[in-house]
Amino acid sequence: MVECGTAPLYENVIHGVKSLFNSSRNSAAPSNCHRQLRNETERAANTTLILKSCVACGLILGALLLAQMMGAYRFVSNDLVQREAERETNRKIVAVEQMARVLGAQDTEGLSELVNETVRESPTQIAWLRILQLDGTPIAAVGAPAEKLYSPSRMQQAIESHEILSKIAETPSGQVLVTARPFHPDPSPYAGAANGEGHGPFLRPRAIEIAIYLDSVAAPFGPLRLRVLTGVMAALALVIAMIVIGLRFGPYLRGKQLQQEADVARVVQLDLMPPMESIPEDLDFAGVCIPAWQVGGDFYDVFADRNGRIALMLTDVAGKGLPAALLSSLIQGALRASSWTSDAVLQAGAAEQLNDFLCARSAPERFASMICGYYEPKTSTLRYVNAGHLPPMLVHREHDGSFSIQRLEDGGPVLGLLPGTFYVQGEVTVDPGDLLIMFSDGVTEAENMSGEDFGEARLLAAICNNWHADTRDLCDTVLYQLRSFLGDLDPQDDQTLMIIRPQPSPADFMHDEVFAKRPLASFRPREHEVDLSVAARTLRGVREVA
Prior knowledge:
By secondary structure, this protein is of the alpha+beta class. It has 2 domains: about 85-220, PAS domain (Beta-Lactamase), CATH 3.30.450.20; about 275-540, 4-Layer Sandwich (Phosphatase 2c, domain 1), CATH 3.60.40. It is built from 15 helices and 16 strands. Helix 1 (about 5-25) packs across helix 8, helix 2 runs antiparallel to helix 7 and helix 11 packs across helix 15. The radius of gyration is 48 Å and the shape is rod-shaped.
């Protein structure tokens, strides 16, 4: 066994990854790549600045709108209601004065009757109504405040200066507007005094005090207050939304950047897949890799070395997403950089070296299964190492139309779990016209809504029912039937499928009875037909080859 260290492998990995990018069919010149990345960075920075400015402007406008709507609500609830209460108070006082003038109510009895009648007309609006002397003694009153609101001197000063006193007071039944002003039941209350007449007590200046409930005059402003309150709530919701957006803006932008990076990583991973024009002419080859997320841990590769051997690889890394994709790219670069297609010792040694490297550098849960082999067209021999992967199936059709299957199982355990593991190389003959099917567990273990696996039987049925189709059509048929099997469910695991058929030489083509009767190009897959009985008979009567 070849002794290998991890340091040379690390250098080979770097070299292999670089060669992969350099050989990608869609790779651009470095200057173009750098220019594109710089443009994308500048565009992302400009977009971020614009979005941040919009959020800041929205927050400022929301705060201004909230302050304005709160001021409007306060104005409607306080100022407009208080003004309406003042107008209603003046109307009541003027009405009392006019009635007193008309009825000639100048004594205590007449004024008391007038006050009682006024309160009876508006019992829910008037808290109290009093006609007072200058010292505050009631002449006629209905109700009274819980405490004295104005001092006698303040009342006398207001009467002498014809001032109207007004204030908001609290009562058990709610807020009231209390208004006190001179009471003039006579158009010229001081006329008698000026002529030396009427020295009676009722000709002296008097005051009237009335208290109006604010709620009683606020009803007309109810719809307006509701609209303003709705505006307040909308402005508050806008401010809260802007705050939430501002707090979540950073993570959101980071998520969008990660999404863009994942999209770029998907393109890069697809570019690392072998282009069809690079497939050697000795093989009829088709392959597909469908990640469950943007990128996945599955990959396949096909290339020819300098000796004419054709390398075949398929790796399935545990997990999904970017971590699995990084590890799969690492394995692909390591295999590309090594010369494992030279002989059996180097192939097994490369697997052991790669296993030790992954055990030392990756987490235990980041293991990988792998099948790698190289095909020699001159001898129709495939030499392979299976590192814990689902065994590929080599399907051969006999002259009587029956099928035999050989599974490629030689190798060892998965990579990255058990350091110091030994691997062995297997060898099998692949005749022209045989089919080599390599697949990941995302194909055979895909479950439908009933919890049923797609299974190897359906995979073999799709192959056997369309045996003479080319590999590309066979691959499309399998994928079509797999999608039909899953229905509306999305794949839960990466799905990778490789179908390889060695091309026969012209002499072999003419000696094959089946191919001689029917040209290969005339065969087309029956995409909508799956005969599971063919696969079932094949699996029951399979001739296992050691």
